[in-house]
Amino acid sequence: MSNYDVFISYSRRDDADGFITRLRAALEGEGLTVWMDDKIVSSAEWWTQIETHIERSNNFLLLISEHSLSSEWCQQEIAHALTFGKRFIPFQLSTIDEQRVKGGWLDQPWEQIARENWEPLRKVQWITDYLNAPEFDTAVARIRDDARTDPAHVELHTRLLLQAQAWQNSGQSPGAHIGGDPLVAAEAWLAAWDALSKDNKTLPAPTTMQRDFLNACRAAEDEIARLQAEQEHRTHELETQTQRAAAENERLGRRTARFRIAALIAAVIGVIALVATVVAIGQTNEARDAEAIANTHEFEANGTAVAAATSAADARFQQATAIAANATAESARLEALAQQAESHFALGDLTYQRGAAGNLAAGRAAYQSAILIFAELGNEKREADAFFGLGNLLLTRESELAQAREAYEAALPLYRQIESVSGEANILRNLGELALREDDLSGARDFYELALPLFREIEDAFGEANTLKSLGDLALREADLSGARDFYELALPLFREIGAVLGEANTLLGLGDLALREDNLSSARKLYEAALARFREIGDALGQANALLGLGDLALRENDLSSARDAYTAALPLYRETESVLGEANTLRRLGDLATTAEDFALANDYYQQAERIYIRIGSLVGQLNVAIGQAVVSTQQGDVETACAVYDRLFALIEGTAYETHPAVQQQRERA
Asked: I want to staple 358 with a disulfide (CB 3.0 to 4.6 A). Which of 107, 354, 464, 563 is the partner?
């Protein structure tokens, strides 16, 4: 959904002569995007839409009259705009009897809201020009000029407000943070506003929620920097310990050499002593020969025994010293490695959660480092967890399917070896998701059906619900509409029971796709809009993109090309923001189809080529087929038969030997070729 320049809050009783309707048209004629509620029916879903449009508007144009000030819904709108720090443009339509207005609030359920709104509303300067000279064009010009004051400030305020709201709705999840240049720019904007004097403060003012959001984002950025610095420090420590151990080994080697030299010297001295003894014996009388020889033998024996004992003791001392030193060094090394591995793992997880706000290459490297270290430490559980995290990053954020499979298949035997049923079940389900992405429908079913009883065995309702939802997606791909409905309707109450809003939203989205396939367009719209509201509630950008894509497909089915284009155009930056390359490619292809319908063939080919490059990179056969069909249609409509034939040849070569070879849509293309 796009943002708006102006949200109009008014009482329908003031539009009896069509003034407000004309005002809206005139403001749009001035180039402003305007939203006002022109529906009669009120409901919870309707009010959610009102809140969303207030939040997404840069200015809140309040058309003040006794009617609007006495309207419950206008007061609710004013309160919501004040809560979100919107810039007010209070335009007075008629004179106000304050006592009569306040008297009308008495005993109303919303009386307190109206009284709390009144003081801040009175502090804003009202535009009263229309009271004195009711000139329509003058009124339009004044509102236009006010709405365009400080556009950069108010647009950043709205954008930051939506980001902060998404963060708040997600339970302050790190996945909703901003980082890098966008965070620096937002902090600079806030610092510049804070530095202004009181009289020069620009409206709207930053809200507490925006400040809290930026503080949380900065804390997360600092935490990433701390983790990276900690990793570098631990790596340096490990290198230092390794160098010290090498130096100690070298020192011990030198000491051993010294002992060997000492032993050699002792041996030489022993020989010299022995020679001297022999000479002395030759100079003594024969009576003492036997005694001298006996003494000499005893000396030699004692010397040899002492030398042997000394040598053995010294060897034992050296061995004990080396063992103690090695044990201490090894213990320190293992502890440092474990800490380093956990830091790597935490950085990988943080990067995965933040998606585009993080550095995916750094996340991949962090997981890979953690895997290597956990393997060296023999920690199979954490090694499997790191493989699982890497697989999720590769599958969800980068669409690297072959590498994701390698990671999952490395984790699976580790989980089985340590008898982790939960780990095994999650790996099997994700392998099913991967197979579905590769159009291997049979393989996907096998994996899901292996995972489902495991989740039920350990009473994991969340895993069970996700697997049922995935089986619904698979059935929808297989055109088994009844089966898809059965699986979705089993999953939905499970998600609601455990409060899994994301799972609920994704299931509503699947039911919307199902309704569209059944040509139940009214039901499809309700389901898509309900899913979109839930995704916005938790700040899930990828989910919002998927819901917008569904609404675009619905508009296309209704032949509302303008609405379809708006929906696709709104979805595309969200897919890019979350680095969902498959979603990006699917949206580009649909925009190509729209351009073909509008006979803008150059634009259509540009969209198709962008989509095709992505499909080829991620290995999506069905995506390549759809692009080829679109390109063939373009060439045919341009009368370029040669190019059309070449495209068809490429299409048929792509599907040769696959399940798509006999698909009805492909047979239709064969007939056209």
From this structure: 354
